[in-house]
What does this fold into?
Amino acid sequence: MISTPTPACPAALRRPLGITRVLTPVLVFMAALPAGSPLHAQEAPPYQPARGQAGKDVVWIPTPDGLLNRMLKLAQVKPGDHVVDLGAGDGKIVIAAARDFNARGLGLEYDEKLVGHAQRNAREAGVADRAQFRQADIFATDFSSADVVTMYLLPDLNLRLRPTLLAMKPGTRLVSHQFTLGNWSPDETSWVEHRPAHLWIVPANAGGTWKATYAGDGGAVAAEMTMEQVFQQVKGSLDFGDIRTGLRSPQLEGTRLLFGFTDSAGIVRQVDARISGDRLQGTVYGPGGNRDFAAVRQGGAPPVGGSAAPSADELTNALQLLGE
Ligand SMILES: C[S@@+](CC[C@H](N)C(=O)[O-])C[C@H]1O[C@@H](n2cnc3c(N)ncnc32)[C@H](O)[C@@H]1O
It folds into this structure.
């Protein structure tokens, strides 16, 4: 799962690995140098973190290059995107986002030495202007301005973050190395050398009752649309007065809502629309041509299903994943 030194189980991400194993050869080498040698006279070598070293809530183990590149591609990072890595370690995800995708990156990292190390790495990569690092606790920091959030944390930490992540602006892309967000199913998962990376696209709130209108073959059509939503999963129906029908294969991706329906005359139509607050605007496709489709939400948006804190069962399951 996690490479050298490979933790025996994911719980190893919580515990520090043998730091002395890494540092001992360095200390032996330094002791063997003659007094007054150039190395002794120079300043101490720059700080180097040790894989598996302790962190506030999770140890430091870097994401391999191939997987982090895939994570940024899954998130469709584009120039100018604001990419935030939660627990940034040596800064490699944020640096790659700036260097290879021309994004603006911010790494939040609790360990001050790692922050300095990441800043030095960003300078060496020539991207210090677009890859920045801040000493911060991810559970006490506002990162809501991000377009893309990356994580390599632990299942229970992901669950604790989930209400905050789900409340981010619709369309924000979330990518996690290894661990999921409990009952919030990923929109896509990739594997690179057997390691998973999961993508979620923060959904808009589509729930509630909407007054929908579009131009039908015989004039304006009005319908009441009701939608229920849990995370990005939606289901609903359209009520034409004489007939009520369920929505066919409704799909919500960020602000984009797609569904089909069979109208009162028995014609199958497809809707492709965008949600902006309490308004839905788009196109209805049918045999008579493509027409505007609009809807206005009535009586406010209900909370998105899944937005509450994770249940005790979910937290227990997450800890069981770690063998805790
Ligand atoms: C598994 S490493 C991942 C590093 C980097 N994101 C990557 O994928 O290469 C997790 C990092 O989170 C940091 N960390 C742990 N708890 C944190 C917290 N509460 N706030 C900020 N950083 C934290 C650790 O110091 C460590 O560097």
Notes: The chain has a mean pLDDT of 90.
